[in-house]
Amino acid sequence: MRSASLPVTPTLSPPSTGTAVRLEQVSKSYPDGPNTVVALDAVSLSIEAGSFTAVMGPSGSGKSTFLNTASGLDLPSSGRVVVGGVDLTGMTADALTRFRREHVGFVFQGYNLISHLTVGENIRLPLTLAGIRPDAEKTRALLASVGLTGLEDRLPGELSGGQAQRVAIARALVASPDVVFADEPTGALDAVTADEILRLFRSAVQALGQTLVIVTHDPRAAAFADRVLFLADGRFRGELRSPSVDEIAARIVELGR
User: Fold this and answer.
1) With the C-alpha atoms ordered 177, 180, 186, 192, is the resulting torsion angle positive or negative?
2) Does 121 map to a domain?
3) Any bridge partners for residue 181, and if so which?
4) Which end of the chain is more exposed for a tag (fewer CB within 10 A), N or C?
């Protein structure tokens, strides 16, 4: 099995410092017939640059709303969201799209690869959309880092699930974003491949100084993180630092009561 570690190389981005994501009294509400659903309720949170954070909680706790709001996919009803030192509050839809393209990476459970583009073209897509000419040496180093050397010309339909997720990770990293958000990134993978992908995430944080935030329901996935945040009823209900799988599972059970 190919190693999922990332080598330290001068062609990749150096570690960053400071705060990558900051939420200040962020609330998000949605209309539900005559009622209003409060998905996030006055959430304040800072995520350190170069850290690996997992967000967990019961179904309906607000995890997806948190991811969408913190990443700039959606704007809060109130409060401030700051990513990479840029306040997203009040940005137009076009400005948010440009900002996400240049400063935020995304990895999803369903990979979201473009079927008619090759592996290389999928990885370079954020740069292509931003009008940035890819650095050939950096692209080669990135392909090697995620174990995709020799697969650049394949189409997504010719890849295994683990390979497709590696392409999605490389695509998220190629523009050296301020932060990468991952939504259930291992949910569609078998346990062995999932662990390999999570080790790859861990290496991206350690070797590249990448900031990573994952939303997951899986205690095994969350245990790879430096910090696990627990969300329930739209509010954060505590955190664990470098916890074990058993510690995470026990906290989830408590939240569900």
Assistant:
1) positive
2) yes
3) 106, 213
4) C
Counting the structural domains of the chain, the total is 1
In whole angstroms, give the CA distance from residue 100 to residue 84.
11
The answer to whether position 10 is within a domain reads no
Give a yes or no: residue 166 inside a domain: yes
Which domain range does residue 100 map to?
19-256
With tokens 């059970």, the residue in question is 253
Cα dist from 175 to 9, 18, 40, 128, whole Å: 16, 19, 30, 10
Residue 33: pLDDT band with limits 50, 70, 90: confident
Please provide the distance, in angstroms rounded to a whole number, between the alpha carbons at the two ends of the chain.
41
pTM of this prediction exceeds 0.90: no
What DSSP string describes 35-66? EEEEEEEEEEEEEETT-EEEEE-STTSSHHHH
CATH number at residue 72: 3.40.50.300
Cα 111 to Cα 81: distance, rounded to the nearest angstrom: 26
pLDDT, residue 10, reads 27
